[in-house]
C-alpha cells in the first residue's frame, strides 16, 4: 500500500444526518484540494452510514466493512484532520479509535475543537496540534502535507 501525500477527515458520524456528517468535511476538502492535497473522506461511503440513521443499526458485516475501509484509508494518508468538537447528540468512539490507530502508525494528527471545549488528556497527548478553529486546523494540515 502506497502512502499518499494526503489527509484523512476523521470525526463523529454516528448520530448525525448525512448533511451534518459532510458539513465541515466539504469545507476542508475544498480547501485541501485547492492546495493540491489529496483528501480521503469517509462520508463517500455515506450510504452505509445512512443505514444506521433510522435506528435499525448497521449489520455487523457492514460495520466491519466500514471499519476496515476507514483503517485502510488512514494507513494510506500522512495526516489525520480530526473533528474533536463536543457534539452532545453524537458518539465519538469511532473517532477515538481512529486517533489511536493513527497515533500508533506515527501519523500527523491535527485536531480542531470549539474554544470552550475541553479535550481528554489522552486525546491531547496523541495530537500533533490542537486548534480552536477548523480554518487553523486546515492550514496546519496543508502545511504538513506540502
What attributes does this structure have?
146 residues; alpha/beta; Rossmann fold; globular
Structure notes:
By secondary structure, this protein is of the alpha/beta class. The chain has one domain (4-145): Rossmann fold (3-Layer(aba) Sandwich). 47% of the residues lie in helices and 17% in strands. The chain has six helices and five strands, in the order βαβααβαβαβα. α1 (18-34) packs across α6. The radius of gyration is 14 Å and the shape is globular. It starts with a strand and ends with a helix. The mean pLDDT is 87.
Q: What is the count of helical runs?
A: 6
The total count of strands amounts to 5
CATH class: Alpha Beta
Distance between the termini: 20 Å
**Tally of domains:** 1
Structural class: alpha/beta
**How are helices and strands ordered from N to C?**
EHEHHEHEHEH
Specify the biggest β-sheet.
5 strands, parallel
Give the proportion of residues in helices.
40-55%
Strand content: 15-25%
Compact description:
With 146 residues, this protein is α/β, with parallel strands linked by helices.
Amino acid at each position: 500500500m502506497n502512502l499518499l501525500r494526503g489527509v484523512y477527515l476523521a470525526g463523529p458520524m454516528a448520530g448525525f444526518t448525512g448533511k451534518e456528517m459532510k458539513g465541515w468535511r466539504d469545507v476542508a476538502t475544498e480547501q485541501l484540494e485547492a492546495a493540491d492535497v489529496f483528501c480521503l473522506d469517509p462520508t463517500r461511503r455515506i450510504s452505509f452510514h445512512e443505514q444506521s440513521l433510522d435506528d435499525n443499526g448497521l449489520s455487523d458485516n457492514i460495520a466491519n466493512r466500514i471499519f476496515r475501509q476507514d483503517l485502510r484509508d488512514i494507513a494510506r494518508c500522512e495526516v489525520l484532520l480530526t473533528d474533536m468538537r463536543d457534539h452532545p447528540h453524537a458518539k465519538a468512539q469511532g473517532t477515538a479509535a481512529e486517533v489511536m490507530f493513527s497515533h500508533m502508525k506515527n501519523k500527523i494528527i491535527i485536531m480542531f475543537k470549539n474554544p470552550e471545549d475541553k479535550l481528554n488528556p489522552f486525546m491531547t497527548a496523541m495530537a500533533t496540534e490542537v486548534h480552536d478553529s477548523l480554518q487553523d486546523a486546515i492550514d496546519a494540515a496543508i502545511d504538513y502535507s506540502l
